[in-house]
Design a protein that fits this description.
Elements lengths: L2 H17 L1 H11 L5 H32 L4 H18 L17 H14 L2 H11 L9 H23 L1 H40 L7
């Protein structure tokens, strides 16, 4: 498969699994309970725009920040993999599910940014995913198609998340809380596997300079 297509699919599936709109959805509905449909759509739109801007910020400036702090890209892959692995395992644990307790803001504008955009949509897992994928581009300006694939995957992920949120009442009515829980646990398997893959890639990149040359 073409490298650009592979990068798009891996970034899209990883981000979608990390954000997990089905897990954000109950919090979204809880925070906006009693609000009209126009308010629901407005909050969903703003939350997704905030998350999109944050993801693009780390896509553009994340690698630069690593260079400023002299952090090797291989180490970022390892750390990102560990974070994803932890998140994947936590999806199996019901108490670790995302909730609105303690962090809910009072206004719709505040709710859109905290907790919906951050940390529910954009948190450590999102940062690790974007930086981990960007770390695969050694010369981003010379690999514009690959960079565009990551950017396109970010946009696609946020678009899917937005659609899930605005249709959340119908989705909850269809699959119910047990269905959401089952999907969340299945997603955890893939997130953990992706995390292990990043850890393996990071370790191999870190030890490569020390391997004997033939």
């Amino acid at each position: 498969m073409n490298q650009v297509v592979t990068l798009f699919i891996s970034t899209f599936t990883t981000l979608l699994a990390i954000i997990n709109p089905l897990e954000v959805m109950p919090v979204y509905l809880q925070l906006l309970e009693g609000k009209d449909s126009a308010t629901h759509r407005s909050v969903a739109r703003r939350a997704c725009i905030y998350a999109l801007l944050l993801l693009f910020f780390f896509l553009v400036f994340g690698t630069l920040l690593l260079r400023v702090f002299d952090v090797p890209l291989s180490m970022m892959r390892i750390v990102g993999g560990i974070i994803l692995l932890k998140i994947g395992f936590s999806l199996f644990d019901p108490p670790a599910r995302k909730t609105a307790d303690g962090g809910a803001a009072q206004t719709d504008e505040d709710v859109a940014f905290v907790p919906l955009a951050m940390p529910l949509m954009f948190g450590p897992g999102g940062i690790a995913t974007v930086l981990g994928m960007a770390a695969q581009l050694h010369h981003p300006l010379d690999e514009l198609p690959s960079l565009a694939a990551i950017a396109g995957a970010i946009v696609a992920t946020i678009a899917v998340t937005y659609l899930v949120l605005i249709f959340s009442p119908a989705i909850v009515g269809r699959i119910g809380p047990r269905g959401i829980d089952a999907v969340t646990r299945i997603v955890g398997i893939f997130v953990a596997a992706i995390g292990m893959g990043l850890i393996f890639q990071g370790v191999m990149a870190a030890v490569e300079p020390y391997l004997p040359r033939h």
